[in-house]
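Lecture notes, part 5. Sequence design as translation. It can be helpful to think of inverse folding as translation between two languages: the language of shapes and the language of residues. The source text, in structure tokens, appears below.
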């Protein structure tokens, strides 16, 4: 008899965009601050720790002073990072506020690898890979407070249960996991797992522990109530190393060092639901506290891959439709319909983890759903944005060299991604619903249209005038008394937007007659030649010694 299984319901949950962030050589460990704003990366080959700004997706600091760093753990308060120095048998402490080392390194066992902070932040458990022990650091004094705890051979990964009562340590050379009671700091159980276990991840409810078996390409699942393996090993990629759980506990992400990928395990079914390619020799991973992105250290590339959780990307577009939208999730193959609210989108591509569509016309916020033979998915929002309405630009002129800060006001500007001056597009430096600022690019003399592009479309109702630098050539008369009062005429080119004239640095009253003529009255001055300076929207030009002040005659 053949058993027929119902198709699985599609789920919109995450997407893999894969920007990379350059860090130091040979990165391994990674941890986030509690806010998720910064990630700290142990650059094992560079003896540094790199600090990634997750908003900018860039390394913003590099902290020196380590020795073969491997693991990173950050206290729940977000004030300190603990970094294991595998080459020095110690743990260094970083002050998060200053990104500086605080005090001397803390001596632990031989070749410390991974480490973990207890949920209350009072202790750090350190796996000493070289001598088969675990050290315990008191974070109040930053000292080791008990004798080393003997575990199995070559301990590597460390994880603490959410209630802080047990620590699970992978014994890489012992094909087992040691269970430590934090009440007594003794091993209470040894659980056989697969070959070469490394990464350890505990479910949020503390009921299960997932162990990445580097030597067998599998993940073992331990029931913490009985400390036994409760299911068949889960096949993943080649040489799995790091393992991390999602904040909601629905997924375990396993880093496959040998196949340059990460496997995503559903904790509901204990099966791999997706695999994503990352950089060379990925080693460890961390998921942002809000669950919106996974960061993977690429040991062989000196980079960190960023996998962002985006059900629908982009999640906004113009009311006219026509946006190419990528929908990410699981069980999406064989999609029969994709709805944006009540309207059908045009499907252009379909795989088990990704669908591409063309958005239909619409307004407001609508729910996106995918329908397959397995049913209809959960919803993800899509925002229809109206076209922008720019109403004014200030200033509306500037030099051909560019560099002028320009403010555009109007409506619907919050999603602006580009402002085009003639044919040159630049990104806004700040945006709001009614205002954006942008730095004008270089251009050629003349007036050009200014186009604002947002998620809702484009508008080109404004203009900007590029003005050449002024070219004063002479002043007539070119001499007068030191008492001032001489009526003079400046001639030249590009003088129409003159907004200041000075003689010897002193502003003088003036009138613009034409683009080639400005009249002025000289102020009092010191005997001798005086520089004439003309400032316009196109810049500032000085004519050295253009006017001479003549002293009064004496008898």
């Amino acid at each position: 008899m053949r058993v027929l299984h119902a198709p699985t319901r599609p789920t919109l949950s995450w997407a893999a965009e894969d920007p990379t962030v350059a860090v130091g050589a040979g990165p391994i460990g990674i941890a986030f601050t509690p806010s998720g704003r910064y990630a700290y990366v142990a650059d094992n080959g560079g003896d540094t720790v790199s600090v990634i700004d997750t908003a900018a997706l860039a390394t913003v600091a590099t902290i020196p002073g380590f020795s073969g760093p491997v693991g990173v753990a950050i206290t729940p308060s977000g004030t300190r990072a603990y970094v294991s120095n595998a080459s020095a048998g110690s743990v260094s402490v970083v002050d998060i506020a200053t990104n500086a080392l605080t005090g001397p390194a803390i001596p632990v066992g031989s070749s410390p690898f991974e480490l973990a902070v207890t949920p209350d932040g009072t202790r750090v458990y350190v796996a000493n890979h070289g001598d088969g022990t675990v050290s315990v650091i008191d974070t109040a004094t930053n000292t080791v407070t008990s004798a080393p705890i003997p575990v199995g051979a070559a301990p590597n990964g460390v994880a603490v249960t959410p209630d802080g009562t047990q620590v699970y340590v992978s014994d890489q050379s012992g094909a087992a996991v040691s269970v430590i009671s934090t009440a007594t700091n003794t091993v209470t159980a040894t659980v056989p797992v697969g070959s070469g276990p490394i990464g350890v991840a505990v479910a949020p409810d503390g009921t299960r522990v997932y162990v990445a078996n580097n030597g067998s390409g599998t993940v073992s699942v331990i029931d913490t109530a009985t400390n036994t393996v409760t299911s068949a090993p889960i096949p993943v990629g080649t040489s799995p190393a790091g393992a991390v759980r999602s904040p909601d506990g629905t997924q375990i992400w396993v880093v496959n060092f040998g196949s340059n990928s990460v496997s995503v395990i559903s904790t509901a079914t204990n099966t791999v639901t997706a695999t994503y390619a990352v950089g060379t020799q990925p080693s460890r991973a961390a998921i942002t506290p809000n669950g919106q992105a996974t960061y993977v250290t690429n040991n062989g590339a000196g980079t960190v891959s960023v996998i962002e959780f985006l059900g629908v990307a982009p999640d906004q577009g113009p009311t006219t439709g026509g946006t190419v939208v990528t929908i990410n999730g699981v069980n999406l193959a064989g999609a029969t319909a994709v709805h944006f609210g009540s309207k059908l989108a045009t499907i252009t591509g379909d795989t088990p983890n990704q669908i591409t569509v063309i958005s239909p016309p619409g307004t407001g916020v609508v729910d996106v759903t995918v329908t397959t033979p397995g049913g209809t998915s959960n919803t993800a929002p899509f925002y229809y944005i109206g076209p922008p309405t720019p109403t004014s630009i200030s200033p509306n002129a500037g030099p051909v060299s560019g560099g002028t800060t320009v403010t555009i006001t109007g409506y619907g500007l919050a999603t602006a991604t580009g402002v085009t001056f003639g044919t040159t597009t630049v990104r806004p430096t700040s945006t709001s619903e009614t205002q954006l600022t942008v730095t004008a690019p270089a251009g050629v003399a003349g007036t050009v249209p200014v186009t604002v592009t947002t998620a809702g479309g484009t508008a080109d109702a404004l203009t900007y005038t590029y003005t050449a630098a002024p070219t004063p050539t002479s002043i007539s008369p070119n001499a007068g008394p030191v008492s001032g009062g001489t009526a003079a005429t400046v001639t030249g080119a590009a003088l129409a937007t003159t907004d200041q004239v000075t003689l010897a640095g002193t502003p003088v009253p003036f009138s613009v007659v034409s683009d080639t003529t400005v009249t002025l009255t000289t102020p009092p001055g010191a005997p001798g030649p005086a520089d004439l300076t003309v400032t316009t929207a196109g810049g500032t030009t000085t004519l050295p010694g253009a006017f001479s002040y003549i002293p009064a005659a004496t008898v």
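The translated text above is only one of many valid answers, since several sequences can fold into similar shapes. Confidence is low (pLDDT under 50) at residues 1-5.
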